[in-house]
Amino acid sequence: MFGPGLNRNENQMLSASIEKVAELIRNAKYAIAFTGAGISVESGIPPFRGDGGVWNSHHPIYLEIDFFRKKPLQSWIKIKEIFYDNLGDAEPNIAHKVLAKMEERSFIESVITQNIDHLHQKAGSKYVYELHGNYKQLVCIECGSEYDISFADLNYLPPTCYVCKGILKPDIVFFNEPIPQFAKKRSFEEVSKTDLMLMIGTNAEVLPAADFPVLAKKNGAKIIEINIKKSQLTDKISDIYLEGKATEILGKIGEYLYL
Ligand code: APR
User: Ligand 1: does its nearest atom lie under 6 Å from the Cβ of 149?
Assistant: First the structure.
């Protein structure tokens, strides 16, 4: 069953669309993927919005940089609960693995992701641009020293810097923080070159990340959207909208590409 609640005829149409998308990928000159939290839902990581969304049960203020600086302990208690208690043992699902295989076989060039779970890299993708950082790194808000998460014992919060005793923060982009320069620059370069973007599992609400698919479209790329429901951009930029779970649709695309 592909799309939740699709009837037999709709599913046949969806299957034909997936076959067409596989053909478009095969013939693309520079295909890339743009992913959001939805691609990791089937790895057990909740999305931020929609059913089971993190922001339905936690206030986003704990991920706001000025609040974090003022109340690091309160923020860290929530951050540990929202992210570190969940992400540690999450494994890549078939959607991550298909994208990694597609890169290996040169069907796609890179993945631009809003996710901080590192699952694209864990699945084997090499060219991954993390617009919102990644949870496996910590950074000192005083001296900028960087640590792997394994350095910190999260039973003692907030973790502090070995060099200057400053507070350590997850190296993820908090609200009112800029996106990392490297990921931003590389993403603009990828988006300026692409002729086909797979936009997977994003509500496309958060800027500047959600500007990248819009820019790809402006540059003449075909936008293929994979989502269980329409996003903010579906009716604005998506050339083909494949309704369904990322694992099911990318699994099918992988079959058509003989991955
Ligand atoms: N398969 C495909 N799409 C799915 C699935 C699934 N199994 N489950 C959920 N989705 C879709 C939802 O329909 C929704 O469009 O994934 C999207 C999740 O939306 P968000 O939770 O808003 O995730 P995202 O768009 O990545 O959020 C962007 O917001 O809070 C910030 O920094 C955070 O990176 C995050 C950013």
Answer: no
Pocket test for ligand 1, best of 2, 34, 48 (most atoms within 8 A of CB): 48
Which CATH number is associated with domain 47-85+135-172?
Answer: 3.30.1600.10
Spatial contact of 233 and 214, defined as CB atoms under 8 Å apart: yes
Which atom, in ligand 1's list, is nearest to the CA of 37?
26
97 lines ligand 1 (CB under 6 A): no
Q: Does domain 1-45+91-132+178-259 have CATH number 3.40.50.300?
A: no
Residue with tokens 């269980």: 228
Instruction: Write down the domain spans for the chain.
Output: 1-45+91-132+178-259, 47-85+135-172
pLDDT in tens, 86-144: 777 899 999 999 999 999 999 999 999 999 999 999 999 999 999 999 999 999 999 99
Q: How confident is the model over 203-214, as pLDDT tens digits?
A: 999 999 999 999
Q: Is 121 in the pocket of ligand 1 (CB under 6 A)?
A: no
**What's the confidence (pLDDT) of residue 246?**
98
Q: Could you say which DSSP state residue 29 is in?
A: S
Q: Is 120 a catalytic residue?
A: no
